Amino acid sequence: MAGASLEQRVEAAAAAARSQLLAGRLAQGGWEGELSSSALATAVALLALGVVPPAEGQRDLMARGRAWLWRTQLADGGWGDTDRSRANIATSLLVWSALGLLERVLGSEGEMACPGAVERLERWIEGETGGLAPANLVAALERRYGKDKTFAVPILMACAVGGRLGAAPQCWRWVPALPFELAALPRQWFAALQLPVVSYALPALIAIGQVRHYQAPCWGPWAWLRGWAVGRTRRLLEEIQPEGGGFLEATPLTGFVAMALASAGAGASEVVQAAVGFLRESAREDGSWPIDTNLSTWGTTLAVKALEGEMPEAARVAVRVWLLGQQYREKHPYCLSAPGGWAWTDLPGGVPDADDTAGALLALRELSGGADAAAAEAGARWLAGLQNRDGGMPTFCKGWGALPFDRSAPDLTAHALAAWQAWRGEIQWQALPAMRRAVAWLGRTQHAEGSWLPLWFGNEHQAGEGNPVYGTAAVLKYLCRLPAADFPALGDIRARALDFLLKAQLADGGWSGGMSGGPASIEETAAALEALLAAQERAGLTVPRAAWTQGLEALLALTAEGTSFPAAPIGLYFARLWYYEKLYPLIAALAVFRHALRCLAAARS
Questions:
Q1: Listed residue (204, 144, 203) closest to 175, CA to CA
Q2: pLDDT band at 151, cuts 50/70/90?
């Protein structure tokens, strides 16, 4: 649009993005999106398929998966989680293990298509760990994950299955013996037990604990206790396994469970066969797997908020009905969560969580204008029941421990605050006490430079792979919805957050994950811009016009004037597992374009 004003260009970009987003809506209601293919998920799925009893077509499926892995090796020899990610030790070890197992199962003919790939991978691993000996691998995983065993122990188990820790049974001694017998106790006790894995990884705790007991048992009374607990905890797995066979709809978690139980002599069990059925069904035509089936509920709530009412009435009704149908009406069998919450997906493996429940509440407010007060009240009370004693919001379960997903997170806390605020006038539950505790927690945990680190999103270019830009933008955006009169400290909290985002802006006008460099992305630039515009429009803060107009110019350039939306791997899931989602940049950019049009019109008048 040569010669067009910034406002005209943003208006055209908003129209193009809106058209593209509406075109992607499913007939039955919401949006499904598309998660990136994952080398990590593919490697885990192949390991699982390689140790279970073979079924028709399974060898062909494994051969396609191996070929996809060969095609996605990075130039440095390692593997990243996505085709746009840096190599990392977790994914590279899992691919190394999968290739070792597949060579025994399928033979080595695949190497002819990619000669020297394993040697290049081993050189990369040696460069990261100092050697291929089991002790080096264990130390490298400890450096990456610290005390959190949620992902480190499954990776070591996969290395044992793939023959990368030496011969059995000695190789299994390198796999920590998880206390799976504790899962035989009432689940209401788990908070006091301080389990060494995150709350929602219970199936992996049971299955990997069992394979370690089977392959390298301890002796004495503890061995008897564990032997007794095998049957009881395996029955628990049967009870909590979803109808589709996929635990949490997640390929890595489901694959780890199937791999462990099959290696413990239970490959023919119903749990393993259902898990393998899920893996076979979720494989993609090119031989790869995503980390999860879909984020349909999450993507739908983001889309609704970005469209801000600009949706045809028939579509609006369909989305509203669909979204109401995703609310849990009974206690969830997996995590014993009370009714009232929403999960990230419409599929049976979903589990209600704080972020998706808050997102659903905000989307329903937009769709119904306050008419869905009964559903909103149940959701608001559900969120309140999840609030930690410190005032912040965890992900799935209250009080399990200090591991990710159980401890309070700034982005989740601010999202819950916005949801409570949206429905305060329509529901009977008094939200203000819970909201004040949440705001106080955000004030206490704000970093000295004004930032917060989010739970769900990271940036591979930042120190520690954190993403203070995304975290701060999410918190500030939602805090700008709160009335300052109810929260005396809010003004200072918001001003400090705004100052951080302004200082983090790159020379080209965009934003990356923080102050440590790295390229600007659509997702991070849009997140920062939306926060800046909210600070100006909703909270009355002074935002330099040059900052947000230069940001808009950067966003227009990144999106080719609203026509192209390449996704960046900023999605962070399940203990540093990266992904990207094709809807994220489209939705994020549209939200900014629409918000910016109001600000540009106000500045013009």
A1: 204
A2: confident
Cα–Cα distance between 257 and 247 in angstroms, integer? 9
pLDDT in tens, 32-44: 999 999 999 999 9
**Where is 444: in which H helix or E strand?**
helix 432-445
CB-side neighbour CA atoms (13 Å) of 144: 22
Which of 443, 460, 484 finishes a domain? 443
Give me the pLDDT at residue 202, please: 82
The Cα 540–Cα 237 span in angstroms is: 52
Residue range of the domain that includes 304: 295-443
What total of structural domains would you count in the chain?
A: 3
Rounded Cα distance, 178 and 224, in Å: 16
Beta-carbon contacts of residue 325 (< 8 Å; ≥ 6 apart): 29
Question: Is the separation of the CB atoms in 471 and 453 below 8 Å?
Answer: yes
- Which DSSP string do the residues of 543-603 spell out, in sequence order? --HHHHHHHHHHHHHHTTTTT-----S-EEETTTEEE-BTHHHHHHHHHHHHHHHHHHHHH
- 507 and 569, same structural domain? yes
In the predicted model, what is the mean pLDDT of residues 242-251? 94
Contacts with 189 (C-beta within 8 Å, 6 or more apart), sequence order: none
Task: Note whether residue 32 is domain-resident.
Answer: no
| Coil, helix or strand at residue 208 | helix
Indicate the residue among 408, 443, 478 that finishes a domain.
443
| β-strand partners of 573 | 577
What is the C-alpha to C-alpha distance for residues 261 and 272, in angstroms, rounded to an integer? Answer: 7
- Candidates 219, 104, 250, 89; CA nearest to 155 is 89
